[in-house]
Amino acid sequence: MSAFKTVRGMRDFLPEEAKMMKYVESQARRVAELYGYKEIITPVVESYELLAAKSGEEIRSRMYTFKDLGERMVALRPEFTASVARLVATTLKNEPRPFRLFCVGPLYRYDEPQRGRFREFWQSNYELIGSSKPEADAEILMLTNSLMKAARLKNHVFKVGHVGVLKGILTQENLDDNMQTQILQLMDKKQYDEAFGLVADSGASEKCIGILQKLVKLKDRKIFKTLEEIEEFVQSYEKAVSAAENLQEILKLVLESRCKIDMIVEAGFARGLEYYTGFIFEVYTPELDTALGGGGRYDRLIELFGGERTPAVGVAHGIDRIMLAMQMQKVTHETEEKTVMVIPVKEELNVEALRISQMLREADIPVEVEVMRRKVTKALEDADRRKMDYAIIVGERELKEGTVVIRDLAQRKQGTIKIEKIVENIKCRE
């Protein structure tokens, strides 16, 4: 037995899984087209400095980092946003705003492997850069809803919030950015006691801690009632009130656009990445306790990479997790495309079999040619096992009349057909 196996946290995708992944990727690309997002391709390896700049301590500690042969510190990308921000700050800096950019591919984090979490994982990523307006935030939320529907997922729910509510309170209580980041990361992990302990140790008022404790309990599908309650709780914190009003404006746009979307407002919601400045969200299905995607507004990231201060909002969707949710909901990703096996009866007919297969492929019909020189009976058994729809049997007698035998493998029926009519015949059956 071979000692070689995949590195922990990495996976092989067998044909059926690869097909499902390509299906989800194709839906992600289709959504990008529908919303006007242009695809870009960024390097898998970036400078460590770029990726570490604003990704948060947890991601920094889990990056695959190494020195290249030029003694430069580099890392495998753990997310796409830093690479996109680099592009906008440099190559695209003089291009007209807004940008709508899309990318898809593998990312790497040294996480503990578990269901829905791997060390190599795939994401589709959408960034809308150049607008600070609530309609940009609304678009990213609606786009994610479109992808969940395109993947045919049912009962998906959005958790929405605004980091400005919590940051507005902590800023007014004179807590610095580093302390705020530590507190929000603890809250993101739902370690509220430790978070409130840090707030108290930083000299915040008892009133502040009381308000934070109320906020983390406040989550409801009654969106506007919940937002009113948030505003009521934070009324003595001016920036927190503005954040709640901004969130209300975004959600009002989404709902008034008649987008059918299920949302829960969560007042104490925080995400792990340091760069968020405003509206944030995640999307879930009932079968999984991990988010299928998430994102939000980050208005200060591009200037960190030497660009001008540029407002931006974006989202990343976990392709692996969408696949897992589809499997759990038994969502079919099969296309209606018919597949064909071409079987020459003997070796002398191989060229004719290849000609027929080429004709079918030029008509966009997927074809496999029998290349093992099996007997027809064995070749038909193989076509069955491969779940092919039709077999075309190329025989000497039929060829003299310009025909072949076509066999419907599901219905176990067959007949002869003129070679020039094969494409039309198969397409009519679809």
Describe, in plain words, how this protein is organized in 3D.
The model has no long low-confidence stretch (mean pLDDT 92). Helix 1 crosses helix 13 (319-328) and helix 10 packs antiparallel against helix 11. This protein is elongated. It is an alpha+beta fold and 430 residues long. It folds into 2 domains: 15-328, BirA Bifunctional Protein, domain 2 (2-Layer Sandwich); 340-429, Rossmann fold (3-Layer(aba) Sandwich). The chain has helices at 15-35, 48-52, 57-60, 81-89, 134-150, 163-172, 177-188, 192-201, 206-216, 223-233, 238-256, 301-304, 319-328, 350-362, 376-385, 396-400, 422-429, and strands at 38-39, 45-47, 65-67, 73-76, 99-108, 120-129, 157-162, 219-220, 263-266, 279-284, 293-297, 312-318, 340-344, 367-369, 390-394, 403-408, 413-418. Strand 13 (340-344), helix 14 and strand 14 form a beta-alpha-beta unit. Strands 1-5-6-12-11-10-7-9-8 form a 9-stranded mixed beta sheet, with helices on both faces. The chain has a 5-stranded mixed beta sheet with strand order 14-13-15-16-17, sandwiched between helices. The two termini are 45 Å apart. The longest helix has 21 residues, at 15-35.
Labels describing this entry:
Rossmann fold; 2 domains; 5-stranded mixed β-sheet; 17 helices; 20% strand
Going across the biggest sheet, name each strand in turn: 1-5-6-12-11-10-7-9-8
The CATH superfamily label of the largest domain reads Bira Bifunctional Protein, Domain 2
Poorly predicted runs: none
Main sheet record: 9 strands, mixed
Quick one: overall form?
elongated
CATH architecture of the largest domain: 2-Layer Sandwich
Give the tally of β-strands.
17
Compute the number of helices: 17
Binned, the helix content reads: 40-55%
- Give average pLDDT, whole number: 92
What's the CATH class label of the largest domain? Alpha Beta
Count of discrete domains:
2
Distance between the termini: 45 Å
Radius of gyration, taken over Cα atoms and rounded to an integer in Å: 28 Å
What is the CATH T-level topology of the largest domain? BirA Bifunctional Protein, domain 2
Structural class comes to alpha+beta
Strand content: 15-25%
